[in-house]
Amino acid sequence: MKILFTTCQGGVAGSTHSIYYLVRGLVQKGHEVHLACRRGSLLWDLVQRLGSVECHDVPFASYMDLGSVRAVGRIVRKHQIDLINAQGGKDRNLTILAKWAFALDVKIVFTRRQRPRNEPWIKRWFHTAGTSGIVMVSKGLRDIFLAKGYSEAHLKVIFNGVPEDLLLNVKKENVEELRRVHGLTGKVICCISRKKLQGEIISALKYLPEDYSILFVGINEGDFAEWLARESPKQRILFTGVVSHEEALHYLQLADVKVLPSHMDGFGLALVEAMLSRVPVIGSRFGGIPDLIQDGVNGFLFNNGDSQDLAVKIQRLAEDEALREQFVNRAYKDAIEKFLVERTVTEYEAYFTELIG
């Protein structure tokens, strides 16, 4: 197959690595893969290292970026692309416009990774009429789209995945150096994510022991200044700001508990990374997170806004060694059996083949 991946994003986010893993896997299976995104983005740099993927500098600057529409048309015709997998909001719209404007003989598949913010009927019609199918990265996300009026026949669930050798480059001495540099002692509660609902954790701190350390990886203190001023937590809180993926994996190894509070995640790739790292997980009861976490079996779920319940669950996992062991063993097994990228790539390949016919 000749496949073109597009995205208007490609920065520091779980979706960037999800796309990279998928591109790499399909190349390894012998397919010709192209990528259209912004030159110099993290995704561009990652894919360039593969050496076998042609990258096309397409900015997808707006929802009506006609220059990007023309660029997509040229790429599809020049390289005889069979299928476009559009990953970002702006490029999803623009790939359909390119297909219709230039009468392109190409299939279009969307991948949706987050809850839809605004799905009026005209947008739903446009996305359905212009695509051969839409991939949902979890069953929970599919259910949200069904409630918005999408046809179940047009939606295909394929879970995200991570490589089994995810921790290959994580070095114990580097982890211990981070612990020493930041002076981390006692129980460490970690959240690795761009800005989401980290305020839920800050609100829960008044119910937790003061000797806990809280580690926010991927955001700056200023992102939650109002929460901090209002709650005045007594615990030590560390904000790392944006870090590389490899650095984030090192920080993850410091955690006694990993928490992902969210109102937007269709999956939660960082949770799978924690499961493979044998770090116990807690996540919001939202979207695709319950597809990963079975409450009370391999982790805990909590309702956004219930900070006391979140605190109780954090403390149980931080201090109950038997429960931690039970959860991390089951979570590791689930990650290996359900959420490895090899399975993701195989299912995408089968779906694309079916659509192309």
The end-to-end distance, rounded to whole angstroms, is 11 Å
Q: Largest beta sheet: what is the strand line-up?
A: 3-2-1-4-5-6-7
- What is the fold-level CATH name, i.e. the topology of the largest domain? Rossmann fold
Main sheet specs = 7 strands, parallel
How many alpha or pi helices? 15
Number of strands: 13
Strand proportion, as a percent range, falls in 15-25%
How many domains would you count in the coordinates? 2
Low-confidence stretches: none
Features:
elongated; 44% helix; Rossmann fold; single chain; seven-stranded parallel beta sheet; 15 helices; 2 domains; six-stranded parallel beta sheet; 357 residues; alpha/beta; 16% strand
What's a concise summary of this model?
The chain has 357 residues and is α/β, with parallel strands linked by helices. The protein has 15 helices and 13 strands.
Give structural notes.
By secondary structure, this protein is of the alpha/beta class. It has two domains: 2-161 and 340-356, Glycogen Phosphorylase B (Rossmann fold, 3-Layer(aba) Sandwich), CATH 3.40.50.2000; 172-338, Rossmann fold. Helix content is 44%, strand content 16%. It has 15 helices and 13 strands. The strands form two sheets. A seven-stranded parallel β-sheet has the order 3-2-1-4-5-6-7, sandwiched between helices. Strands 10-9-8-11-12-13 form a six-stranded parallel β-sheet, with helices on both faces. β8, α8 and β9 form a beta-alpha-beta unit. α1 runs parallel beside α2 and α3 (66-79) packs across α4. The termini are close together. Residues 14-165 form the Glycosyltransferase subfamily 4-like N-terminal domain. It comes from Marinoscillum luteum. Residues 193-333 form the Glycosyl transferase family domain. Its EC number is 2.4.-.-. One of its GO terms (molecular function) is glycosyltransferase activity.
